[in-house]
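// run 5 | inverse folding | seed 20
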């Protein structure tokens, strides 16, 4: 595909051919791009998981500080994260794009490069999609299909009284990077990476499900408090979180040192794409072993309680009240 060629000239089918030529194959994909549907083989002892996400320019991403390859990576990673949150592994992805005519072929090529690289990195395959012209912003919709062993999918509604609440990685980095981008600053590389290239925790999710360790699970896309809130509502439970136990990156800690109120970003900032899950109290040693296996921090940040409240407490026993709620699309920003 020539970089000089305009998108109008390349056309819908030119773009599809370009994608098809690079999509590759996978043993579980009987038929990929090119027909009316893909055909996916599902083993008889597995169940199919499906999820869709929408990314709209100006709502979910800003091209002033987002590169096209990063955008491709993120579009795929956020979907795979939903499969991970159920304990599954991703198999097929579907990419629907509405492209403004002003977008260069170069940019589109970088975007597709990011999409395919991230898809392949997870052993999955791009199996179809849809392509249209947009009269407004760039719109991306990705659908993912994954599989999980029958009966092993981990839902939001399984949290039980006295169980421990764990989270992977560190929290708040993506939201801090976004805040700094909006202020015209350049975030530290560690923060920027977390914002632009989140890592879907599919190995973690699948091992937690396969070993029957997690009783409930969710990926943190809207912020810790909001997403834990979803688990608690679905499980009809409450929880206590220990503020000082929340895992923070060195760059986040440094920023917090200068401005202590930044801690709220770790509680309410979205797009961390870490996994939040509950486990029985006697599973803690197994979770520690899993953390070592995956070379990924897994931190206990609190416990489930019978009552329907979510409390955040400091080391000295006092309650902490965050200033902001989690991300909510229909709230005024
Ligand atoms: P239909 O008319 O049945 O919607 P299309 O002409 O839109 O078919 O698509 C032809 C093939 O190319 C289908 O297999 C479809 O899944 C695939 N496809 C279209 N757009 C994309 C895309 N952006 N990414 C991946 N595959 C795509
Ligand atoms: Mg179509």
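// decoded
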């Amino acid at each position: 595909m020539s970089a000089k060629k305009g998108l109008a000239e390349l056309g819908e089918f030119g773009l599809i051919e370009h994608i098809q030529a690079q999509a590759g194959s996978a043993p579980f994909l009987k038929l990929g791009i090119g027909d009316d549907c893909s055909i996916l083989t599902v083993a008889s002892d597995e169940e199919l998981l499906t999820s869709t996400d929408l990314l709209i320019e100006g709502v979910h991403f800003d091209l002033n500080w987002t590169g096209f390859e990063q955008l491709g990576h993120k579009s795929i990673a956020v979907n795979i994260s939903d499969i991970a949150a159920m304990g599954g592994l991703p198999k097929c992805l579907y990419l629907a794009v509405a492209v403004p005519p002003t977008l260069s072929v170069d940019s589109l090529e970088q975007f597709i490069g990011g999409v395919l690289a991230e898809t392949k990195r997870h052993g999955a395959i791009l199996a179809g999609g849809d392509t249209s012209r947009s009269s407004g912003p760039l719109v991306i919709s990705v659908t993912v299909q994954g599989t999980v062993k029958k009966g092993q999918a981990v839902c939001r509604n399984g949290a039980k009284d006295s169980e421990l609440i764990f989270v992977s990685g560190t929290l708040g980095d993506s939201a801090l990077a976004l805040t700094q981008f909006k202020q015209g600053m350049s975030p530290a590389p560690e923060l920027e990476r977390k914002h632009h290239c989140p890592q879907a925790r599919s190995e973690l999710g699948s091992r937690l499900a396969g070993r029957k360790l997690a009783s409930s699970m969710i990926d943190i896309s809207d912020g810790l408090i909001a997403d834990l809130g979803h688990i608690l509502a679905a499980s009809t439970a409450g929880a206590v979180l220990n503020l000082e136990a929340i895992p923070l990156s060195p760059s986040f800690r440094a920023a917090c040192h200068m401005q202590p109120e930044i801690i709220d970003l770790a509680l309410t900032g979205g797009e961390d794409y870490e996994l939040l899950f509950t486990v029985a109290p006697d599973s803690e040693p197994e979770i520690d072993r899993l953390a070592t296996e995956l070379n990924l921090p897994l931190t206990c940040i609190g416990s489930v309680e019978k009552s329907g409240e979510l409390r955040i407490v400091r080391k000295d026993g006092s309650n902490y009240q965050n200033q902001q709620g989690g991300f909510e699309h229909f709230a005024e920003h």
